[in-house]
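Worked problem 6 (solution included).
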Amino acid sequence: MSTPQTEQPFEVNAELLAQLMSSDTFCPPEPQTIAETGLTEQFIEALLCRHLAVIGGNSGRRLAASVCLPLRLIAPILESLRGRKLVTHSGVAPLNDYNYILTEAGHERARGYLRQSSYIGPAPVPLTEYVVSVEAQSIADEAPSRQTLLEACRSISVEPKLFDLLGPALNSCAGMFLYGAPGNGKSTLARCVTSCFGQSIWVPHAIIENGEIIKFFDTQFHHAIAQQEDGVLRATTIDRRWVRVERPTVVVGGELTLDNLELRFNRDSNVNEAPLQLKSNCGCLLIDDFGRQRIAPGELLNRWIVPLESRHDFLTLPSGRKIQVPFQQLIIFSTNLEPEDLVDEAFLRRIPYKIHMTDPTDEEFHHLFRLYCSKFGCEYRKDVVNYLLEAEGLSVVQGSAFGQGPAFRISYARNRELTPTPKRGRHVH
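Solution. The predicted structure is:
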């Protein structure tokens, strides 16, 4: 087992945290000064020069939109660059604006900045501000009700007694094992429960710590949603360095390696990519088909045994410096193996909820076919479902939360125009 890192407390702006926690909705306000961005003028200057070098000349407003900072904050920096003959006006833009291009000296300066880092995109937010956002939006502050859980699982069939087990696990946010036979809907159920935690969250495009940029926003896991002009959002101008997304559900399967759990440094761009567990903060991290990964369960134990208990993780920057980051998500291990056969007692103590998903009943299958027949606009015929259950051997498929197979079977039946025929004996396709 690896030796735990020395724990260093977060240096969080207590005043900012208190201000954010005083509202029911976390909302990152637009910075009014350079100091409020948490960035230096030199960093913003380098970012603007890289944009002009890679994308070409642009108006002040478009540059501001590209780096997601207010025009009033970058305008003095652009004028400073112009005064040093690094940029020049190439024309007048609408709304009392100018178009900017790099001069020869500006291109030389930009090449130096690009050698340091080729990152172009929204300006990053400081790590301390990201930590505050996780504290303010943590799922630990949510308390899903039974009705909320029922609503989240309305598209699948779940045994009533399973809700009695899921409820405490979700409210504790301590993680769980879902285990049972293959194909019984464990992964489908895991995807549904994330919606129990309700509202959207704000995540940054990128994070900066000690001059190192970490790309965070990932369209694979972070689904952006439109801003609604209500409540706090109407009263406050938003910091555009943040994106409003659905609570993330990060799903990883057999492709998981230890490298996926560390910062991935791109030597060509000198930019880091956030690991999976960081991207899943304030949401759900599903380890699908646990025990079948490229890494042994014991290796994952050594990597996560401290984060699972302390709720924070340590990541290593390319410079060798370690940073402390939040580890606050609902972790679900989905497996068709017994948990005791996969990991030792130390790991099991940190995942206190082990939920066994049992075989489905014929009644559950009928319920699912009625559900999906309505969804697909098909006629529900009890005799056809019985035919599939008996003659086609569907009843041997495991699935107490079975929710995807019926859609396939309905499509299959519609295409073949299945009608009951004399039984041919049980077999499985």
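Discussion: The chain has three domains: 40-121, 129-224+237-356, 362-392.
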